[in-house]
Structures are given as C-alpha cells and as structure tokens.
Amino acid sequence: MRICIGCNEPKSKSELYRVVKLSDHSLVVDKTGKMNGRGAYICKNPECLEKAVKNGGFMRSFKMKIAMDVIEAIKKELEHVG
C-alpha cells in the first residue's frame, strides 16, 4: 500500500503512478515502478494531480519547489501513460 500525494488515501501500487526525482533534480513518471530515485505516488485520477499541486504534495515529497512547466509535463506524461 502507498499513499497518494493528492488525496492522501492509501491504495495499492497498481492503482497509482510513481513520479521519480532523478539525481539531476528532474521529475519523470516511472513506468516500470523500479527506477532509482526518490519517488512519490499519485492516483490515476487527474483530479489528484491538481490536489497534489494545490496542497504542496510534490514540494513536500521531493523537498524542492516544482515549476508549473514541470507539472504540465508530468500531467501530459500521465495522460499518455494512462
């Protein structure tokens, strides 16, 4: 079980996407669930991405400010994966 950074509800890993902070401080969607780096989980529901941005879930998880263009890139990547 993992907790979504948007809605803060525990769910199984198969119900969530994993976003990873790489060593160069870039954020990517982990399609395999096995990439190295700090990870945070988000529901497959687009509303949870919006909640994670509003409630600071990404900033809290990755301990850094996240630019809106990075959030938009993650949003597009999640749409493509889903």
Largest sheet: 3 strands, antiparallel
Which CATH architecture is right?
A: 2-Layer Sandwich
Rounded to the nearest angstrom, the radius of gyration is: 11 Å
**Helix tally?**
3
Label this structure with key terms.
single chain; two-stranded antiparallel ribbon; Hypothetical Cytosolic Protein, Chain: A; alpha+beta; 35% helix; three-stranded antiparallel sheet; 3 helices; 82 residues
Task: Give an account of the 3D structure.
The chain has helices spanning 46-54, 57-62, 68-81, and strands spanning 2-3, 10-11, 16-21, 27-30, 38-43. By secondary structure, it is of the alpha+beta class. The protein has one domain (2-81): 2-Layer Sandwich (Hypothetical Cytosolic Protein, Chain: A), CATH 3.30.1230. The chain is globular, with a radius of gyration of 11 Å. The mean pLDDT is 91.
Compose a concise summary of this entry:
The chain is an alpha+beta fold. The chain has helices at residues 46-54, 57-62, 68-81; strands at 2-3, 10-11, 16-21, 27-30, 38-43.
